Amino acid sequence: MEVVSYPHLPAELSRAYIALYTSVTNAGALRKRIINAASMQGREGEDEREAVNYAFVDPRLITSPLHVKTAVLQAVMAQAQGALRTKTVHSEVLWALNPSNNISEAIRRYGVSEACTALLVVRVDGSALEPADVERKMGAAVQGQLVPLTQLGRLTDWVAVKKCHKLNNELALKVCGQDGERERAVIDNIVVSSVAMKSVMG
Amino acid sequence: MTAAPDILAEAILISQGAEAAIYQAILHQSPSSEATPVFLKYRFNKQYRHPTLDASLTRSRIAGEARAVLKCLRNGVHVPGIRLVDASQGILGFEWIEGKSIRMLLGGGAEGEEETEYTADLLEDEDAVDSPEDELQSLYGLTPDVLMAMIGTEIGKMHLADVIHGDLTTSNMMLRRMFSTASSSTVELVLVDFGLAYTSTLVEDKAVDLYVLERAFASTHPDSEPLFATVLQAYGKTMGKEWANINRRLDDVRLRGRKRSMVG
User: Does residue A137 lie within any of the structural domains?
Assistant: First the structure.
């Protein structure tokens, strides 16, 4: 798990915990749980919502740790300025990742789905939690194996990323030819840049 | 004066101009991964403008710059990637480019150096260091001719994407070394500062863009002026059949200057 801090932001947003899980077995159940939690009443509902109060991201469309960190940073900045376009900072992460402005499409594409066997879990929280504590709580929600964030590159579905960002006919990729490593670096740079400038895309 | 945004509190000020100040900062502070710096461009509040106008101008310029850069990225022009956009505070963050500006490498000196008065001591020190041209050769293994061709090619790629830079000077180009594998490295010419950039398909706009660079060359590097022909040659090669029209228009522009109409 990686802890990223933003000392320039208000205390309650000053920290993000990002963890990557592989061999995830309960993706479908997790998705149902999130949907149910939203409509539960009373004390029980609050507890359940807290238990799944994370951004669950499908790592197949994520190109690098910087990609997800950029989305998290744009989301916490939007929250700090009261400019969220979605309901929570966690759903804002998913929104920031998606190239279009459609919120439900963002959640469908980048959120957890039945087919997920790996998950990227993000929690924005300022209170100085112990990383081990956050890890334990994340582990309670996700059944899988915690791996370092640097493993992200292995899980990327580059064909899907290219399709999602409409990169197939771009000149930048054509000049790379057969050089796969170079092509991936170029894609990563374009994708990270698109996420960073999403707020002024229009 | 409104206080500077908090994100700049820990940033290092690199330079300050009339429109914006530039900083080096760390965006994602994390104990477990290596921190890479970013380049922040802060368009501060202009006290001489009405606050409402100021906010909307800053916002639209940031949006314009970010869009031009993304368009370049998608078309394979070497430009720094975008890392952060905060239009409401006027901050734009870019990938950090490690390298030197072409202006320095061609011996144009640092910007604003003209005003500095040199003492005799300083001049002696200057002799001790390599001349800029040697540096070009020893650091990057490039001859001035090859460098000029790189400039022409890069501008050509940008114009093919219909992006007009608006402020082409040798200060707005940098050289960086890319390490593809551990042993081999390639040198890349990177275009920076798209603050005045816009999109246009007009031959006129492309010709004026080149003309601005030609004039900048003539004034900052008087002895390198003949080299500009190499820039145009490489540019023409990249542009293909569009080049004939642009070249013809460039001749017109040279006669009349940057502004088409002389009114006002």
Answer: yes
Q: Is residue A202 part of a domain?
A: no
- Concatenate the DSSP letters of all residues of A42-101 into one string: HHHHHHHHHHT-SEEE-GGG---HHHHHHHHHHHHHHHHTT--SSSSHHHHHHHHHSSSS
CB B79 within 8 A of CB B72: yes
Across the A/B interface, how many CB contacts are shorter than 8 Å? 97
- Cα(B163)–Cα(B259) distance, rounded to whole angstroms? 19
- Closest-CA distance, B72 to chain A, in angstroms, reads 9
Clarify whether B167 is annotated catalytic: yes
User: Is residue A18 helix, strand or coil?
Assistant: strand
pLDDT at residue B125, rounded to an integer: 47
Number of domains in chain A: 1
- B interface test, pick of A130, A134, A193 with most B CB neighbours within 10 Å: A193
3 state DSSP class of B71 = helix
Let me know: does B166 contact B155? Beta carbons within 8 Å: no
**Residue pLDDT, tens place only, A47-103:** 999 889 999 999 999 999 999 999 999 999 999 999 999 999 999 999 999 999 999
